[in-house]
Structures are given as C-alpha cells and as structure tokens.
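Would you kindly consider the sequence and fold I have copied below?
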Amino acid sequence: MFVRSLLAAASIASLGSAAYAQNVVAAVTNFADANGTPAASDAASRLSVDDIVRKLAAGEKKRAEDLKGYTEQRRYSVSYQGFPANLTATVVVETTYDAPKSKQFRILSQTGSKMLTDHVLKKLMEAEQQAAADPRQAAPTTANYTFTFVDQETVDGRPCYVLHVEPKTNSRLLYRGTVWVDADDYAIAKIEAEPARNPSIWIRKTRIHHVNTKTGEFWLPERNQSETDVRLGGRATLTIDYGAYQTKAEPIAEPQ
C-alpha cells in the first residue's frame, strides 16, 4: 500500500519538470482564450492574463525550438516515515534529453532501500520517459487550465507575475495551485501546487514545490520536492536535485 502511495506521489512530483522544462515543444501553443483580470499598479502590471500567458507561450515555444537537447546529472531521493517501517533510497543518474521527445536515464549509483529504488524511483523515471513522448498532456495550456492573475512578486531578484492555475479536468497529470512567470523572459520560475485529483485513496494530501533556473537562454529544473501525507499517519518526501546542464542549442547562423 505505502509503496503505491509513494509512487503516486513521486509521479505527481515530476510533473513540474515534465511540463515546463524538458520537452515543451508544441506544448504551449493555445493560450489565446486565457481568462483573467487585469493587474492594477504600474504599466507593466496592467498586462492582462491573456497578454501574460500569450507572451509565456511565445517565449516557451521559441526556447523549445532552440533547445535541441541536454545532458545533466541529477539525484533522486525518497524517504518514508511511518507504518510499517522508516525507509530511504537515493539514486544518482545521468539524464540525456534529445528533442523533441526522447529522454534516457543512466544510473550512476544507488543506495538505501532496494524496494523504494525499484518500485518508486525507477518507476518514476519510466513515467518521465512516457510523459516526454506527449508533453501536451501536462502542458500549461488553456486546454488544460484556467489562469487567474494573483499578484506580482520578486523571485531571486527577478520580477514575476503570480498566476493561479485551475485544472479543467481531474487528470492525474494536472494540478491546481500557483505559478510564478518571469516578467522579463516570460518563463515559469516556480510552482507551488497539489494534484488535480488524489492519486491514491491512501494519500491524504500532497504538496509540490518546483523551482526552475535560467541556464543560458533556457529555463530548466533546479529542484523539485513533494511532501505526501499518508492516511495511516506516514509521510513520504521525494526530492529531485538537478545538476549542471550541458545544453545543445540551435546553431546560430553565420552572417552573410
């Protein structure tokens, strides 16, 4: 039971990276009907939600077209405290992404519970590979979400628009919560959310925290953490720490 709960939580926790970073090609194209209210302070904040999300779509689409792939070393860690035992596991992998839909993992090391490694962390990698094949399922589009303006805030010294996202269906791949959109690059900087639907009857609540960082011209995952409360009183924490990226970008044309 608790292994299934952990896997469900782990799959939800990976959504941020799947939806916003690894393969957004063709996944952010239909924002034109976004609903929302205009912001209310300075000239920049008077952009409507429609404007913000259209600019987000254009920026993400351009970055997706330019990003031809990357390699990066990441660490998956999961811990469970509760019935019937306290368990931990960690796997370090080399991840290779080739646009538009291929993602491969090479395990470099693994420690801790073999059960958690085999039935949670490795299954999570398989789920990420499947999500890479069709990123539209979890993409932040108006086909999937309704967007509402909340506020403006600064994240790591950069101005951001804060938007509430509400899923239009109870898909296991979607979530409800808050996203921070960088006001200069119109890229997703941070996500705080919970699943659109409870992924397991054994799970009471799951909280997702996801942070992207700018690497060259691209915004890619930096850290992803989920905390899941299990109904029998246990708690599972999944953390994905992303290492330095080596990106493959579209070559810049030589001047004529």
The beta strands are 67-81, 87-98, 102-112, 145-155, 158-167, 175-182, 188-195, 203-215, 218-230, 235-249. The first strand starts at residue 67 and ends at 81. The radius of gyration is 18 Å.
